[in-house]
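note to self: dont lose this again. the chain is below, predicted strucutre after it. 107 aa total, dont forget to put it in the shared folder this time
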Amino acid sequence: MPCFSCGARQTDPIRGASPWKRGVRGETQVLVCPDCQRTHDLDLDTCSSCGSVSLICRLGEVECRSCGSVRPARADERACAAGAPGLSKELSDEVEAALNRVLGRVH
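---
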């Protein structure tokens, strides 16, 4: 999944923890690259209890990593696992093309 802000693709870290961070934006789990983390106006969702942007979205609920507050994801928004808006078809096509190359399929 690319950075929701700039579109940069995540690469494998050399060792240790990834410098990329997770967040939630519009009820959707997103990734934020190290460069965009330095930007202070990322417009990420915040915790209604403590105001933190350290949220994760999974299985229809949003959890705050700072205070532990859990709330159901709003049903009228996109599902948490849907990915960044507008990228799902593009990513699907990219994955299909990569599989075709690896498996030697010709289309």
